[in-house]
Amino acid sequence: MTVILRWAGLVAEILLDRPEKRNALTPEMLDSLGLVLAEIASSDARVAVIRGAGDKAFCAGADITRFAGLSPELMWRDWTARGHRVFDALAALPQPTVAVVHGNAFGGGLELALACDFRLLAPEVTLGLPEVGLGTVPGWGGTERLTQLVGPARAKEIILSRRLVDADTAVAWGLATAVSGSLDAAVDELVTRLTGGAPIAVQVAKQLIDAAAAGAPARVLEPLAGALSSATSDLAEGVAAFRERRDPVFTGH
């Protein structure tokens, strides 16, 4: 098993467990990740956290030995399409997702992190999309998601000139959420804040933000979302806790 799903209460933890290859992604790993994501999507998990095993890399990207000899048809129909399906499923998870980037993330590894809602980085981390140096291009959403985060000019700098981005620059450019020398503590703090909100409200708010980023009008979607939240017991609990000056206890209903 090179993709492992572990549970810590209401937190789903995904581990890429191929440290001897710097967690480079194979077709089998993508398929396993897709199954794990489907399980999380239908669960009561409130947050999903993705980590890479070992101390050398979060994920070095796609396993070059698995795509270097592919025919153009297989590259088109299978390799890139498979990655898009899985990474799109990750981006579409109703629960917030956190990439814990403790080591370098290149190519498909960075694209995996880009499909998450939050990216927490260790100070020594380096990020990059170096595919043009191999004679190919980012194939799992990197050109789109990177451009959405940093804009076309910086996306071109990273992709076309193969610039490697350090952790502090990644945060300054909006490529990462935060950099911390105490990465586990930073993850715990973020997860605590994410799990402290009403689960349905959190998930609906995530969908509203993603829809707004795609150009959907908030004036249409927010009233519908507000109507949905008004039917939940969590809203009644939140109002009661506010009035009673206590912490709410949300159930996700």
Element layout with pairings:
Blueprint: E1 3-8, E2 11-16, H1 27-41, E3 47-52, E4 57-59, H2 64-67, H3 72-91, E5 97-101, E6 104-106, H4 108-114, E7 118-121, E8 126-128, H5 142-150, H6 152-160, E9 165-166, H7 167-172, E10 178-179, H8 183-195, H9 199-213, H10 218-230, H11 233-244
CATH topology of the largest domain: 2-enoyl-CoA Hydratase, Chain A, domain 1
Superfamily (CATH H level) name of the largest domain: 2-enoyl-CoA Hydratase, Chain A, domain 1
Question: What is the count of distinct domains?
Answer: 2
Globally, the shape reads globular
Structural class: alpha/beta
Query: pLDDT average, as an integer?
Result: 96
- Order of strands side by side in the largest beta sheet? 1-2-3-5-7-10
Number of helices: 11
Distance separating the two termini: 34 Å
Largest sheet: 6 strands, mixed
CATH architecture of the largest domain: Alpha-Beta Complex
CATH class of the largest domain: Alpha Beta
Order of helices and strands: EEHEEHHEEHEEHHEHEHHHH
